[in-house]
């Protein structure tokens, strides 16, 4: 009679249960794995054989069939090693089958029987309770990660033989306690920025309302410095946000065994040579891309026009939906991707258009060609677009420090609390308002409406840009703790649409 052992597989950042059935029969010795295994799972036959033998147990000299159910879903990764080995040991009588009931197994095996860390443990641990399991057995290196999930007992095992001794009652494996969260401090601070008052203000508005930001300026103006300090003025992540972000990093295999919980807001800065798959996600095994790794954090794209055009256009839907669905012949998965996009670019190819100190060598046609690499639909989705001029050397010599990040963060937190109270949804910001919500909550006064209509005619604003100006104005009013949007708020919001103005 086949022996049943349970494990789990991943679909995006969600886990689903997998039943491992092991059957021993008479016939020509050999091991067959069925149930749509990928090459990694098929290769596990040799790892399991060596691990069992090197742990001091006999590998059955029988015809072995291992079925991974559901059989119509592809199984990927080395995490199936441990459950298949446990199934074989149960089928041969080394382990009592009743002892493994109620346990979920996940882990990769080394040839000497050691358990090696595997990716995707946290999504499995979070789902194990829903599957009806009381205990999760994982490699020792994944113990702290799995213990982040509430309501599940975690056994962190170092060797296959240790697990066998445990089930026979001859060894003790203590349950892993959840790691205690530690506070995270940033090494950078907004007070490091000299001058750039307008850019600092735009950074504060972006943080307060969750607005996407584009910085345009010559080389050395401080665009990257500004972007890297944006996480320091964002509110700290809630426990739910931290767990959701950690789950993505677990699937990507990027967690540290010592500090598995992602506490700080992610800041991802991919190089402009990144591929569409690397940015959006996908590949042969459907892994999360940079936009998902930046979930609840900041995605910084420096030298924006140099990025692959297809990769940039693929950002449009995730920016609107807060998630990305990737469909391939092997299946379809959805990854969370709610991030704050910050971009930086030079005003022209040489980088000095509009700089009073260095002449620009580009013709108007070259400037238009350079900026045309960015499509209108993508720019429409960036709420704040402003020019960042070079800092005068006299300001640098004066060493005047601006407000520290802690002071600005307090204003940002107050503005976000106003938004949560207004909309009644935790974490909802002005940038995420629908068109109907904009019409309800972002009504300017009469003078503000007239100014916005004039700006729309002069700049040729699209309907999306029109609504985004209203969202930014709503955030400016929230920072000033005013419920009514006035002409002053509309005027400032319009100033952050620099790329809507015509080039010479």
TrEMBL record:
Keywords from the named record? ATP-binding, Nucleotide-binding
Question: Which Pfam family name is an example for this entry?
Answer: Mg_chelatase
Signal peptide positions on this chain: none
Query: Entry's Gene3D superfamilies?
Result: 3.30.230.10, P-loop containing nucleotide triphosphate hydrolases (3.40.50.300)
- Positions of the MCM C-terminal AAA(+) ATPase domain: 286-384
GO molecular function terms noted in the UniProt entry: ATP binding; DNA binding
Q: What PANTHER family does UniProt report for this protein, alphabetically?
A: COMPETENCE PROTEIN COMM, MAGNESIUM-CHELATASE SUBUNIT CHLI
Family the entry assigns:
Belongs to the Mg-chelatase subunits D/I family. ComM subfamily.
NCBIfam families from the entry?
A: YifB family Mg chelatase-like AAA ATPase (TIGR00368)
Q: What is this protein called?
A: ATP-binding protein
Source species of the chain: Thermosulfurimonas dismutans
């Amino acid at each position: 009679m086949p022996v049943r052992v349970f494990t789990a597989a991943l679909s995006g950042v969600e886990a689903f249960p997998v039943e491992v059935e092991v059957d021993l029969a008479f016939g020509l010795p050999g091991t067959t794995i069925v149930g749509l295994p990928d090459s990694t799972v098929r290769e596990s036959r040799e790892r399991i054989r060596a691990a069992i033998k090197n742990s001091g147990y006999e590998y059955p000299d029988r015809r072995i069939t291992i079925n991974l159910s559901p059989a119509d879903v592809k199984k990927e990764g080395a995490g199936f090693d441990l459950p298949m080995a446990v199934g074989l040991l149960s089928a041969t009588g080394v382990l009592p089958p009743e002892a493994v009931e109620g346990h979920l197994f996940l882990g990769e095996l080394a040839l000497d029987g050691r358990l090696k860390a595997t990716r995707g443990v946290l999504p499995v641990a979070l789902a194990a309770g829903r599957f009806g399991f009381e205990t999760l057995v994982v490699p020792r290196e994944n113990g702290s990660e799995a213990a982040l999930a509430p309501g599940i007992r975690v056994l962190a095992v170092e060797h296959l033989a240790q697990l066998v001794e445990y089930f026979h009652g001859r060894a003790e494996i203590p349950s892993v306690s959840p790691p205690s969260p530690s506070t995270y401090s940033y090494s950078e601070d907004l007070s490091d920025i000299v001058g750039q008052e307008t850019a600092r203000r735009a950074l504060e508005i972006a943080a307060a309302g969750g607005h996407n930001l584009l910085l345009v300026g010559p080389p050395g103006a401080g665009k990257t410095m500004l972007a890297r300090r944006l996480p320091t003025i964002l509110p700290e992540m809630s426990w739910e946000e931290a767990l959701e972000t950690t789950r993505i990093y677990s699937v990507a295999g990027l967690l540290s065994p010592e500090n598995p919980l992602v506490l700080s807001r992610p800041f991802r800065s991919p190089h402009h040579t990144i591929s569409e798959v690397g940015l959006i996600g996908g590949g042969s095994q459907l892994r999360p891309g940079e936009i998902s790794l930046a979930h609840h954090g900041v995605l910084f794209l420096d030298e924006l026009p140099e990025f692959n055009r297809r990769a940039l256009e693929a950002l449009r839907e995730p920016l609107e939906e807060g998630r990305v669905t990737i469909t391939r012949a092997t299946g379809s998965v959805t990854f969370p991707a709610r991030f704050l996009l910050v971009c930086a670019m030079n005003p022209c190819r040489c980088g000095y258009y509009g700089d009073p100190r260095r002449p620009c060598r580009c013709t108007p046609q070259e400037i238009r060609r350079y900026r045309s690499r960015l499509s209108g639909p993508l720019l429409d989705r960036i709420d704040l677009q402003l020019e960042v001029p070079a800092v005068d050397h006299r300001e640098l010599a004066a060493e005047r420090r601006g407000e520290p990040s802690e002071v600005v963060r307090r204003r940002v937190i107050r503005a976000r609390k106003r938004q949560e109270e207004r909309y009644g949804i935790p974490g909802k910001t002005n940038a995420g308002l629908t068109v109907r919500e904009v019409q309800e909550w972002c009504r300017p006064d009469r003078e503000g409406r007239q100014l916005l209509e004039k700006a729309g005619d002069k700049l040729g604003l699209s309907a999306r840009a029109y609504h985004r100006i209203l969202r930014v104005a709503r955030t400016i009013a929230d920072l000033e703790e005013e419920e009514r949007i006035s002409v002053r708020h509309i005027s400032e919001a319009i100033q952050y649409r620099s790329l809507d103005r015509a080039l010479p």
